[in-house]
Amino acid sequence: MKRALVTGITGQDGRHMSELLQSKGYQVFGMVRGQNNPKLQTVMDENPALELVEGDLRDLSSLIAAVEQVQPDEVYNLGAMSFVALSFRQPELTADITGVGVLRMLEAIRIVGGADANPIRFYQASSSEMFGKVRETPQTEQTPFHPRSPYGVAKVFGHYTTLNYRESYGIHASSGICFNHEGERRGLEFVTRKITNGVARIELGLQEKISLGNLESQRDWGYAGDFVEAMWLMLQQDQPDDYVIATGETHTIGEFLDLAFRCAGIDDWTPYVEQDPRFMRPAEVDLLLGDPTKARTQLGWTPRVSFEDLVARMCAHDLREESQRAGRG
Ligand code: NAP
Ligand code: G4F
After folding, report:
1. What pLDDT sits at residue 35?
2. Closest Cα to atom 43, ligand 1: which residue?
3. What is the pLDDT of residues 149-193, one digit of tens each?
4. CA 193, CA 205: separation in Å to the nearest integer?
5. CB distance 225 to ligand 1 below 6 Å
6. Mutation choice for ligand 1 from 28, 37, 82, 96, CB with most ligand atoms inside 8 A
7. Which residues are catalytic?
8. What pLDDT score was predicted for residue 116?
9. Number of domains, the chain
């Protein structure tokens, strides 16, 4: 039985990844930081077969101990401080977890190693946020980086560190340059889930308006369940490499609002949305559109869930969840 160590197990992708790996017969160990993590109960309720291991991306000795304990075949580094807006307010923490954390994980793998015949394979969750003020559209594996946030800068550090450990030590280390991916497990702080949750609450009479920042930006939004399949495929290749993982479509926040409010039978969302300067960022990433040709041709990966289906399933989930919470389910 293959063994996988997954950091960020309480996050959106960690939850999808642990299910995918278990469906493929892996024994999955999720790394958890701190004590009494409030998200842990949800994760254990939905996945009782998951095994837990202590560790924090800010603490090298804890990562060495985790790798020694688990003896993984594959490590998926999905842990990060992943919220771009917060990275402007906590840049040093972001650099430490999202940037240097990657180096620490790779050091733990280098130090502990694996059996010579079975070296540990590593996946790094790189981000389209690295393209930032984009130099070309669509963005490919060759597009230069121009990050626009402390988060983006930290991801560039993690991305090049992964490449450097591949080239310096021969570690099977791959990066997925993932464009935005969403779903029912997306954190409420991200714009898509903030909208679908807000629409559900408006429909139920629990909220009057949704306060948002910049409505002009465009994103290449896919479904998280599709994206973790691409991550797994990367570690099954003979050679490690970097891949853009994207849908190849871009949409404005306005288009997302159109579809989400239509789920609630509302054609004009303008009375229900207000702009609040608190949600504007010091620098913005205006347009992301990925070209997933390499992932399609080399990994055989294609996303299954369309933009329309993504919005519909998030809306349906949030209406169900908010109804239950309000005792109306
Ligand atoms: P997420 O839901 O925000 O989850 C982040 C995870 O990181 C949580 O489990 C969190 O655990 C963990 N974490 C935070 N600080 C940590 C630390 N010091 N040590 C260990 N773990 C820590 O993020 P996601 O959407 O699943 O994204 C997964 C990864 O892909 C992240 O690296 C993200 O930056 C990257 N990414 C995401 C997208 C996207 O659109 N979703 C796109 C490109 C790249 P706690 O419960 O302890 O906070
Ligand atoms: O949903 P967002 O916070 O996602 P963002 O900044 O694109 O980052 C996500 O995708 C990255 C991949 O490109 C990941 F690496 C990263 O970890 C994260 O998962 O914001 C999307 C857009 C931005 O332009 C933002 O300014 O929505 C705009 N926006 C407008 N009003 C808002 C809001 N974003 C949030 N979170 N909240 C708002 O009220």
Report:
1. 86
2. 127
3. 999 999 999 999 999 999 999 999 999 999 999 999 999 999 999
4. 18
5. no
6. 82
7. 127, 129, 151
8. 73
9. 2
